[in-house]
Amino acid sequence: MSTPTNTQNADSNALVITTPDGDFSAFVALPKADSAPVIVVIQEIFGINADMRETCRQLAALGYIAVCPDLYWRQEPGVSLTDQTQDEWNKAMTFYTAFDVDAGVSDIAATISAALKLPGASGKVGAVGYCLGGLLAYLTATRTDADAAVAYYGVGIDQHLDEAANINQSLLMHIAEEDEFVPPETRQRILTALQGNHQVDIHLYPGCNHAFARNAGAHYDAVAARLANARTAEFFDKHLK
Question: Kind of pairing, strands 65-69 and 22-29?
């Protein structure tokens, strides 16, 4: 893939990324600092919704340029759903089922290249992903040159454990012990495959369901979310600043 170009729209919270496959947009939240590391925020199955935008703003408040790419652009640009209704779940699952994981990782790599060209980008870049994004954050650690990655309750990681040997930068993983999308036996396979890798740090959250850190989500757990987010903040502070 050739190096993408990027431009900022009149809306300072929008970034357009140009690749050989086409253009797609990303939501951007900017810090007050003149120079800052970049964090690519990787969406759940619901698109760039209020949760993802709030996550970007929280990271910007911590001193990062937070960039959330629209990874559903190949299907339908601008998807923004919640977990509050069955209709939205059904639509989100339709997008998820049709999603091309390899193309998604390619788009994340393009986002990294483009975001590092933004004014004020310090040259360091991390990634954080949730649910589908948790899988993509893991694959970002195995397939890109990101300096650090964080995966929240990733779904499907067990199908890519053969790539674990490619993790050359630090990866932090938050795993819910009651995740309805990751059965105990699947979780154990992940732990067994990764526990010997000194680049990987894994935290388990007893009693927590999938998406325990989703802002205003149905399974939000304030105590677990604060703990996971504090660990994430410390992790990025160590590896990106």
Answer: antiparallel
What is the reported pLDDT for 196? 87
Q: Tell me, what's the pLDDT at 179?
A: 97
| R_g of the chain, CA atoms, integer Å | 16
- The phi and psi torsions of 150 (rounded to 5 degrees) equal -130, 130
3-state secondary structure of 56: helix
Residue 81: closest CA among 94, 62, 100: 94
Residue 22: alpha-carbon gap to chain centroid: 21
CB 98, CB 91: distance < 8 Å: no
> Catalytic residue numbers?
179, 210
Could you state, in chain order, the average pLDDT of each consecutive group of 10 residues for the chain (241 residues)?
35 81 96 96 97 96 97 97 95 97 98 96 98 98 97 98 95 97 97 94 97 92 98 98 94
Structure-block tokens of residue 165: 């040997």
Q: Where are the domains of the chain?
A: 5-240
Widest Cα–Cα separation across the chain: 49
* CATH architecture of the domain covering 5-240: 3-Layer(aba) Sandwich (3.40)
